[in-house]
């Protein structure tokens, strides 16, 4: 028997085992890190809307139950994984809403959690890029008027921005931060109402920005009112 061959074989085997142990030692932390990541995501996606809002938004059960009851069980019907969680993550991580602001959004417009994430991101991009709002200003607009997410950027928000500019609003961004409902519906009706009241066009811009008009109100115009007769009624 060749002792040198035997010793050499054991040496190669020992080296092979050592290399395997070193490889396992090097890869184990990475595998564990990946395991931790895989454990976090499924936990969130298997939670209910109530649990997600409580855990990530600090929304109490009383608030959840009240909002859910007022809107016919809307929150219970929202798919937690495909709808609520992506939007919730965007509102808290990307926009940076605080727990109090998130609760305000939930109470004012819970339908925001039913919207597609792409649409919510498009509106956020409009506020940031088209209007040039800072993150704190975006937070203020979203928390005060979360229904802004219900509008199409191309179909409504950009035309509305152009319309406000055409009225002579000097700083549209500042005006929107002060009165976010300027981005909503009803501005044309208010302008028509002001025309009937005899307000000069040059004063309309400052009026709609400084005066707390309810832009969502609907005015009933009679034939006489449109001809300059009796005043319109709300």
Describe the structure in your own words.
This protein is mostly helical. Among the domains are: 1-46; 143-234, no CATH class. Helices cover 69% and strands 0% of the residues. It has helices spanning 3-45, 49-57, 61-70, 74-77, 80-95, 99-108, 117-130, 135-144, 153-166, 172-178, 187-196, 201-210, 223-226. The chain is elongated. Residues 1-10, 17-26 have a biased composition (Polar residues). GO terms for molecular function: nucleic acid binding. Residues 1-26 are annotated as: Disordered. Pfam families: mTERF (PF02536).
Taking the alpha carbons of the first and last residues, their distance comes to 110 Å
β-sheet strand percentage:
under 5%
Mean pLDDT: 77
SSE pattern:
HHHHHHHHHHHHH
Largest sheet: none
Structural class: mainly alpha
Q: How many distinct helices?
A: 13
Helical proportion? 55-70%
Integer-rounded radius of gyration: 29 Å
The gross shape turns out to be elongated
Poorly predicted regions: 1-46, 221-234
Q: What is the total tally of β strands? A: 0
Biased composition (Polar residues): 1-10, 17-26
Family: Belongs to the mTERF family.
GO biological process, one term: DNA-templated transcription termination
GO molecular function, one term: nucleic acid binding
Features:
single chain; disordered N terminus; disordered C terminus; mainly alpha; 234 residues
């Amino acid at each position: 028997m060749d002792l040198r061959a035997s010793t050499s074989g054991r040496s190669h085997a020992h080296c092979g085992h050592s290399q395997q142990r070193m490889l396992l030692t090097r890869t184990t932390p990475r595998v564990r890190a990946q395991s931790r990541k895989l454990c976090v995501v499924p936990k969130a996606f298997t939670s209910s809307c109530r649990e997600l809002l409580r855990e990530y938004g600090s929304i109490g059960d009383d608030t959840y139950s009240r909002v859910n009851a007022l809107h016919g069980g809307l929150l219970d019907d929202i798919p937690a994984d495909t709808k609520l969680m992506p939007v919730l993550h965007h509102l808290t991580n990307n926009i940076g809403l605080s727990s109090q602001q998130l609760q305000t959004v939930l109470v004012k417009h819970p339908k925001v959690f039913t919207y597609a994430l792409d649409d919510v991101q498009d509106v956020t991009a409009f506020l940031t890029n088209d209007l040039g709002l800072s993150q704190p200003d975006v937070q203020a607009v979203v928390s005060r008027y979360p229904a802004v997410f219900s509008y199409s950027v191309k179909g409504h928000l950009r035309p509305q921005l152009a319309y406000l500019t055409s009225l002579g609003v000097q700083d549209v961004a500042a005006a929107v931060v002060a009165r976010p409902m300027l981005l909503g519906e009803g501005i044309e009706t208010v302008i028509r109402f002001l025309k009937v009241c005899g307000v000069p066009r040059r004063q309309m811009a400052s009026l709609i920005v400084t005066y707390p008009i309810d832009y969502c109100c609907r005015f009933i115009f009679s034939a006489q009112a449109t001809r300059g007769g009796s005043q319109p009624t709300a």
